[in-house]
Write a structure and sequence with these properties.
Its main location: periplasm. It is found in: Periplasm. Belongs to the LptA family. The protein is 11% helix and 53% strand. It is mainly β. The chain has a single domain, classed as Lipopolysaccharide (LPS) transport protein A like domain (lipopolysaccharide transport protein A fold). The longest helix is centred in the N-terminal third of the chain and has 16 residues. The radius of gyration is 17 Å and the shape is globular. The N and C termini lie far apart (54 Å).
Length: 176
């Protein structure tokens, strides 16, 4: 594996697995990470950026992220930001047996402050419910979730099912 590829894999692993404290199956962290894209452009050094473009696909255990573009930035030798754009889809199993399926136009993960921002046509679905809107901000440190309809006057939509409800009802497609 070349030094550039090692750097890219390390930066992406840190970027993606840091989100794991909130949503990941803990065993995913011990699985190999596979990255595919039509193109990669990675710098080396203390302050470097690695860009994957052309249907970037990242898989590790149950985690799967697909986007048109993935950009990971390193500052002072540490990963500091991961940005995904162009029809982002994130899927992952959770330790409690639930599954998350999130979609948005872009995802910006600030690793220094541990804040993930989903922007544009956001849709997040789990077995017990769903959330949609134009912007969702999740603070990994505090567990605070903030969502909004955006400046266009859109609305936030949330559905929370009782524990005994069927998983198919989370999308609103279940039977009454």
């Amino acid at each position: 594996m070349s030094r550039t590829t090692e750097f890219a894999a390390t930066v992406l692993a840190l970027a993606l697995l840091a989100t794991g404290t909130a949503i990941a199956r803990s065993s995913d962290r011990n699985q190999p990470m596979d990255i595919e894209a039509a193109r990669s452009d990675c710098g080396l050094g203390e302050n470097a950026t690695c860009t994957f473009s052309g249907q970037a696909t990242i898989t590790q255990g149950s985690l799967r992220i697909v986007s048109e573009k993935a950009v990971v930035t390193q500052v002072a030798g540490k990963p500091s930001r991961a940005q995904f754009s162009g029809g982002v889809r994130l899927q992952q199993d959770m330790d409690d047996g639930d599954h998350i399926d999130a979609r948005s136009n872009s995802v910006d993960y600030d690793m220094r402050n541990e804040v993930i921002v989903f922007t544009g046509n956001v849709s997040i679905a789990q077995q017990r419910g769903s959330l949609s809107g134009e912007r969702v901000v999740y603070n990994l440190k505090t567990g605070q979730l903030e969502s909004g309809g955006g400046s266009g006057g859109g609305r936030v939509k949330m559905r929370i099912l009782p524990k005994q409800a069927q998983p198919a009802q989370a999308s609103g497609k279940g039977t009454p």
